[in-house]
Amino acid sequence: MVCESWKAKLDTYLDREVPEEELRAFDTHVRSCPSCSADALARVQMKRAIQIAGKRYTPSAEFRKRIQQKIASKPLRSFGLGWTFAAAAAAIIVVGTLTSVYLGTRSGRDQVFSEIADLHVATLASASPVDVISTDRHTVKPWFQGKIPFAFNLPELQNSEFTLLGGRMTYLDQTPGAHLIYDVRKHHISVFVFQERSLPARLDENLVSPKKQPFNLETWSQVGLRYFVIGDTSAADIDGLAKLFKQAS
Question: What tens digit of pLDDT does each residue of 40-74 get?
Fold first, then answer.
């Protein structure tokens, strides 16, 4: 009965629609409650399944062109009036195209951040967060060989506060990648690595995470790979682990 109040707000928690303090309280509770963590994991998996299913029926460029040709208006009789309308239409198309490109890119980035956060939360809520359990980078790195279509380096953690817990395979919009989990002062940090060219959205360097996210996140591209470092620890910790990865690469 104690968890009923938490479960009633799980959807708003997973959608990041509650205040930041409440988000952190939720995060702490989900980590310590097997029932709520299992429920949260199930909802995250369902959410991702719906997103993937929704993309299966995106209209093709050929279909879109055919429809546009069918609804195109007939030429106007007056050349002067037609030229005026044509110029106005061209201006509208240019503005609309630039706006759609900007909004599409922005929404794509937000979706990537949302999915990265979902993967992070789902992993922490899982009963088996890692497939290869080891604090030795020389054990974890070879485990990914043959499972993902690229190679990457893991940093040396000696004389640092970070501890490697293990890793697992993961997917971002059906793109395979590596998911590493680190620990720092009882906080878990996820590090995701994907091929840059395979990601569904183009991301800029040093892009910051949306303000609504209850996590700190840093992302960058290096040697054709896109890295994401995310966790509920301080921004300094996220930056510190990110620097170790940059040096290792």
Answer: 776 776 666 565 555 555 566 666 666 666 666 55
Which tokens sit at 230? 């995310």
Alpha-carbon span 198 to 224, nearest angstrom = 10
DSSP label at residue 187: E
Q: What is the pLDDT of residues 94-109, one digit of tens each?
A: 444 433 433 344 455 6
- In DSSP terms, 132 is beta-bridged to 167
Bridge partners for 219 per DSSP: 228
In whole angstroms, what separates CA 15 from the centre of its chain?
Answer: 13
Q: What is the pLDDT of residues 130-154, one digit of tens each?
A: 899 999 999 999 999 999 999 999 9
Structure tokens at 59: 């209209």
Cα 199 from chain centroid? 10
Residue holding tokens 């062109």?
A: 65
Nearest to 154 by CA among 31, 235, 236, 245: 245
Nearest to 23 by CA among 232, 237, 236, 235: 232
Domains of the chain by start residue, with CATH: 2-52 (no CATH), 128-248 (3.30.200.100)
Nearest to 155 by CA among 67, 54, 249: 249
Three-state SS for 16-43 is CCCCHHHHHHHHHHHHHCHHHHHHHHHH
Provide the token pair at 127. 């009963």
